[in-house]
Amino acid sequence: MKKGILFIALGLFAYTMVSCDPGDGPGGGEQETSKNYWERSALTHFQLRGPVKTIKEFYTDTTYKMTTFDEIGRIVSDEYVGPYENSSVSYVYNALGQLVSMGTTTYEYANHGRYVPRGRFHMNTAGLTPNLSLVSNEGGHTNYTFVVDTLFIISTSQYEEEVYVDTAKFTYSGKYPVSFRTENVSPTTGNIWGEFIDITYQENGMFDEYSEGNFGTGENAHTSTRTTKYLVDEEFMLVDSKVYVDNYYGYEPATYTQQYTYNQQKDILTITEGEYIEEYSNYVYDAHNNWTSRNYRYKNGETWSDLSEERREITYWE
Length: 318
Prior knowledge:
The chain is mainly beta.
């Protein structure tokens, strides 16, 4: 089965938040590439081209997720149809095209002109949103407040009678967050542990290099860093490589590298990490150059898995 990396992003996730970007129009193309990446339509962030109306991604013949877009490229609903239960979420926008509600979650915005992280960690997966200031749901709320060039992300949640508050600080350069660091000190041992993020950007706002990790001192002295490098591309944000470096006291440093390759349509062909290889092949495309089927297999050594088919149905606005 495919490798997966579990990520937590303080209530904001990439797949459900791409629609809060104010961009409009069909995915891809010159109309989109002239904009900052974080102000492009949801279609572009989904790596779709043309005036897509619906995309249905099949997990089995009867299990799928369908995302519906309006005529200017915003998500209006997500629907999941499964073997045991179905679910759906609706999206609502204000006059500026900003997402104001998604199911029971609501969003508010300021006018500072900066791009705000959708979560305090794994930003390269969660992404950035222009002018985001508040996210609220049944579990609590997250405030985004600027003091000069520092963004304070203050998340408040309640469990039974206990109220929990978490604060993170991002340092900005112009419109973009560029670094983040936390340090926690043990009151008994004095040991320190924490997290860090460092980011550089391309001219169009796409990530150029994104590094994040955690560290500790004392008995748990270590530094773990995950660095993602991106290709330079005007249309889509494509991963070039991922490097994982783990350095624990008393052990030899361990380094793992994933390399990504793409076809001419900028769809993934291979992900390689040593002997482990994931391979996508036999792409079939529609008239808008969006793939509708492909094959997948993997190996961790000499033997390949069986080929499996990945399929999706796409409709378009006329």
